[in-house]
Write a structure and sequence with these properties.
The structure is a homodimer of 302-residue chains. The first copy, chain A, has ten helices and 14 strands. The first copy, chain A, has 302 residues and is of the alpha/beta class. In chain A, the strands form two sheets. In chain A, strands 6-5-1-9-10-11-12-13-14 form a nine-stranded mixed sheet, sandwiched between helices. In chain A, strands 2, 3, 4, 7 and 8 form a five-stranded mixed sheet that branches. The mean pLDDT of chain A is 97. At the A-B interface, helix 7, strand 14 and helix 9 of A face helix 7, strand 14 and helix 9 of B.
Chain lengths: 302, 302
């Protein structure tokens, strides 16, 4: 039931209408790892940081049973840094700073002990890096999931399509699904994206929930209506962590079980947005998570 | 199990990316009546048209067992006319023409035979007109539902608040809920609106579904993901028709039954948007509607 997680481990500096942080722990790989760690699968992280990355952050990951053997530390370089400011509606944001640093020349290496993992979660990264991980796996994992974003559609579409062809599940947001497919309707968009290779497409609509498609079925999971959204940073990655963590734990890749995985992903994301950064992904447990899961059942049960 | 429907009966001229109509049958009262008629409750319509309103439209309503005794015909005046053009995304539109005509001085009269109705559905109209209907009812109906829009918040807020205080359920869209409450979060918005009087608040999010709130519960119903949305005109009114029609038929006003009513409303709305105007609300039947209802069950069942 091993899960490999690939994604950035980074510094974020975030400004929302509710406050402002300094350089805090961020990155897709971080959110995915922490979120998936609650499914008792000791996520195996593949990523890179610089010499400026504090031990306390690595220790936090280790305390959550994240296997950091695949986390490269380039002591003479700096860690990836992103800074952004959310608008009043919290649905849009401006990127203030992007310093790629170590991520610019990231050459992922799959440790020998990671071979044989049954699920791989490729967080949003260059499709080239995502592919390089897949190509190092001696046995094809039972399930490969990839996240991506519009940035790669703009600058590396051919590479992206090549990687998409290799995966089982792709997750993207509604605007990205429209851009990739050229279709306005999300139903038609999903159909076109399925033709690119994946067996499943997940379209994330933020506060409006998520849609799961295969060739014959559609499933919709709402987002939990919250009184207070503090910081949406990492919500999509946290979703991916809950989704892939639950699947790695259960090893059932049927459409029916994918539905549950989408709801677990949504439940984990609902924790993430309640505080800054990864703050609310620390100190969760089965009981808290299952109570949150139940709220989703109650929300839609009629 | 009688239902009174109050709302405009009108001409619409609609332009979408998919086509353009001449003056076709429209109006909140029309959509609500047709939609609710499928719940076998012979909706009792209160509205007004001008001398230019063709018999064929009135006959269409009658064929759907709509009781038109409360439909005033002002032969020397013209029918309310609205014209609008939808943008490419179908989520926003420009109003091209609004000719109030007979609606500008509409003085609603509740026919004697309408007295005793257990459910009243007040479509979007001046809150003053909505209140005048309530005040003419000798026995307080078991359930009064009102729809409204931002326009009345802008120009007649005091009147609107007075009417809101008199009803059991208010339906509005997400932006209107935010405007009325001054809250960004829909959960907080609903809480504030509940303090204005109604026991239930329904927040419609268009293609993103609908939320039902009472003091202690939240329910979410998705919209059906469609390959093709042809014309959103009247979708909210059709929702209100399905919602109130189902409640008038079942006479069970518990939160649990309201949930089902919201799903029936969403199911009816999903028919509406598939063709121009009221075109797709003609010729439905129980079988077709229940099949659509089942699609909602399948969509969220996990």
């Amino acid at each position: 039931m091993a899960l490999i997680v690939v994604g950035s481990v980074a510094f974020d500096a975030i400004e929302t209408p509710f406050g402002k942080t300094g350089k805090i722990l961020g990155g897709a790989g971080t959110f995915i790892s922490l979120s998936s760690s609650y499914f008792n699968i000791s996520p195996k992280l593949i990523s890179v940081v610089g010499g400026d990355f504090p031990d306390e952050h690595i220790n936090l990951l280790k305390e959550h049973n994240v296997n950091t053997e695949g986390l490269q530390v380039k002591s003479d370089k700096k860690t990836f840094f992103w800074s952004g400011k959310y608008h009043d509606d919290m649905n849009s944001r401006d990127t203030l700073i992007t310093e790629l640093n170590v991520l610019g020349e990231f050459n992922p290496v799959v440790p020998e002990s990671f071979q044989g993992a049954s699920v791989v979660m490729l967080g949003n990264l260059s499709p080239d890096v995502q592919r390089k991980v897949i190509e190092q796996l001696r046995n094809r994992p039972a399930l490969i999931v990839m996240d991506t974003m519009n940035f790669w559609m703009d600058i590396a579409l051919d590479e992206l399509l090549r990687t998409i062809k290799m995966v089982d599940v792709i997750t993207l947001n509604d605007e990205e699904a429209r851009q990739l497919s050229g279709e306005k309707s999300l139903v038609l968009a999903a159909k076109k994206i399925l033709e690119l290779g994946p067996k499943y497409v997940i379209i994330k609509k933020g506060e409006h929930g998520a849609l799961l498609f295969d060739k014959n079925n559609i499933f919709f999971a709402p987002a939990l209506p919250l009184e207070f959204v503090f910081d949406p940073t990492g919500a999509g990655d946290t979703f991916a962590g809950g989704f892939s963590g639950y699947l790695a734990k259960t090893q059932d890749f049927s459409f029916n079980n994918m539905k549950k995985a989408v709801v677990y992903g949504s439940a984990m994301a609902s924790f993430c947005v309640e505080k800054f950064g990864t703050e609310n992904l620390v100190g969760l447990n089965d009981k808290i998570i299952n109570e949150r899961f139940k709220k989703f059942v109650e929300l839609i049960n009629f």
